Amino acid sequence: MSLRPRPTVTILPDAPAVAREAAGQLRRRLAKAPADRPFTVVLSGGSTPRLLFRELAASLPDPARAWSRVHWFWGDERPVPPDHPDSNFHLAREEWLAKLAPPPDHVHRILAELGAEEAAALYEAELVSFFGLAPGEAPRFDFVFLGLGADGHTASLFPGSEALAETSRLVAAPWVEALGERRVTLTYPVLNAARAVLFLVTGRDKAATLARVLDGPYRPDLLPAQGVRPTDGGMLWLVDEDAAEP
Ligand code: 6PG
Q1: CA gap 138, 168 in Å, rounded
Q2: Mutate which of 43, 47, 48, 164 to test ligand 1's pocket (most atoms within 8 Å of Cβ)?
Q3: Nearest atom, ligand 1, residue 154 CA
Q4: What is the pLDDT of residues 110-134, one digit of tens each?
């Protein structure tokens, strides 16, 4: 029996509905955010966010949204250049940022083409500088999007990864055996300091894993998405009916 509280889950009919609700969640959070500081968003990678980005782009021009206050970050990146089709940055730029055209200094790309370790160090330094962090302090992002891999990973926190045990570094560069590559990823201290975390999970191929993550034993070593438990931020899972039916 799992004694931990079940996360809040909203089930929507299909992936487009998940994207629409996710875009609405972001817009509503931004509209309510204090106007005297930047609003910081962490974008996820993989394929799920494509519909979200298209949904956001469809709302443009959107004068009602203070998009100009938003700074864009990434939860993780693959070891490829920014114009590579596998790049998480490439997806976001192609579907959303190229249309929004934020000021360049509002886009905080992970420089994965430099190699994972160097990119992780540079990204961590950028977080420290941007948020004005004291040693040991984690940034409090306003809104963090995350996805769920069929193996239970999120961002690039994979089962059995040494990055799961990271309690001080903000950004890690773990070797991912299953992929045969080194990734760059935010660590749990950052994800769990967020003001809001939104998981987007769609598709039948995620159903069994989603059920284990939400209702199974707490084993973040095997299901790293379980390790995302914001200390005092909100967390919501937006899933479609295919993913909700184990
Ligand atoms: C990545 C992502 C990763 C993703 C999941 C789900 O770089 O791959 O950050 O954590 O969110 O793998 O990916 P899909 O959306 O493609 O199913």
Answers
A1: 8
A2: 48
A3: 10
A4: 999 999 999 999 999 999 999 999 9
β-bridge pairing 181-182 and 175-176: antiparallel
Cβ atoms within 10 Å of 199's Cβ, excluding its own: 25
CA distance linking residue 140 with residue 170, whole number of Å: 11
**What is the secondary structure of 165-196 as a DSSP string?**
G-SS-SEE--EETTTTEE-EEE-HHHHTT-SE
Model-wide pTM > 0.85: yes
Q: Which of 19-23, 165-169, 222-226, 242-246 has the lowest mean pLDDT?
A: 242-246
Task: Using the atom order of ligand 1, give the atom closest to the CA of residue 185.
Answer: 9
What residues have CB less than 8 Å from 85, skipping those under 6 apart? none
User: CA 7, CA 236: separation in Å to the nearest integer?
Assistant: 7
Structure tokens at 32: 């309510």
What is the pLDDT at residue 81?
A: 98
42, burial (CB in 10 Å: exposed 0-12, middle 13-18, buried 19+): buried
pLDDT tens for residues 220-235? Answer: 999 999 999 999 889 9
